[in-house]
Predict the structure.
Amino acid sequence: MIEGLRRAGVEVVECQIPLWAGIDDRVQVALGGWAQSGFFRRVLSTYRRLLSAFRKVDDFDILMLGYPGQIDAYLARLLAWQRRKPLVLDVFMSIYLIAWERGLVARKPITGRLIWWLENVACRLPDKLILDTAEYVDWFHQTYGMPQGRFGLVPTGADDRIYQPLEPPPVRGDGQFRVLYYGTYIPLHGVDKIIQAAAQLEDHQDIVFELIGTGPEKDKAMALARELDLANVSFDGWLDKHEIPARVANVDLCLGVFGTSEQSKRTIQNKIYEGLAMRKPVITGDSPTVSHSLVHGQHVYLVPRDDPAALAQAILELKGSPDLRDRLAEQGYAHFRANFALEAIGQRTRTVLEEVLAQANRG
C-alpha cells in the first residue's frame, strides 16, 4: 500500500518502531503474555522511541495507521488531534476474528473479551477505516455495530515487484503435473481439503501436490497425509516471500483457499492475487466475496468450499485442458494488472484519503 501510494504521487513519510518479533510473538502475547511486566516494559520503550521519531516528522496532511494498528489507534488518535489532522486506519484484518478462529478466544476467554473491547473502541477512533471487501465491512457492522459509511474499500492485491510472470523453467521431462499450495496452515485455508483431494487423485500418478509453509495446522495436515498413505504429496518448510515466485513458476496450477471460516469467506487471500500476478491458473473456493471480484472460468476456477471431490475434479479438468489453463492465466493476469496491481491499489487508496481530507477541510 505504501509503494502503491508513492506510485500514485503521494508523499509517504514512514514513522514506525517495531514492537513485535513476529507472528509467534503476537500469539504468545495474546495467550497471556500481555499480562507480564516484561511486555509492558517493551510497549513503553517502543512508544517512547516512536514519540521521539514522531516529533521529528514535519507537517503532513493525514496520519495513517497500517495493520495491525488497532492497539496503536489510541496513541495515534491523540497525536492526530495534537497536529489537527485526520486519522485513517487500514484495518486489513480483525484481530478479534483471527484470535477467535485460531482458538485463542476459547482457550483464554478473558483475553478474548479484552481483544474484542480493544478493537471495538479502536475502530471508532479514526476518521476513516479501510478494508478490502464489502463482506468484511458487513462483519464489522454486525459484530461491533460499526457504521458501514466509516469504511473505504481497497482490495488487498499483491506486490507485483515480487510476484510477476517469470520465464518458464526448462522442460522438466518428468511428465508430472504440479499443483502448489503455500501458506500458513490456518483453518481458513482448508488444507485438509487439499489433502483429501490428493487422496482422490492418487491413482493419477503424474499429478503431484507441493505444500509449502508452516503454521498451527501443519502437523495435522501431515498426519492426515500419513494416515492416507499418500505418495503424491510433499511438504516443504517456510520460504521467504522472495523465494516463492521461483517455485510458482515451476508448477502448473496454484491453489487458493478452501476453508469455511468467517475470515475465509469474507476476504480474498494474498495467494490468490499472487497467482494471478504470476500469470498462473488458480483454483480457489467460491464465495460471494470472491465471485464479486473474480469470474469463474475467466479469471479463476471456482469450486465449492469444503468439497474435496469438486477440487479433485477441477484439477483433472484443468490438467486435461491446456487451453483453459492458458486462458485463465492470461485473463487472470490482465484482470490483476487492471485492478489489483500496485498502481491500482495506490490510486484506490489515494481516492479514499482525498475524500477524508476533503471532509476534514469542510469540517
The chain has a mean pLDDT of 92. The longest strand covers residues 177-183. DSSP finds 17 helices and ten strands in the chain.
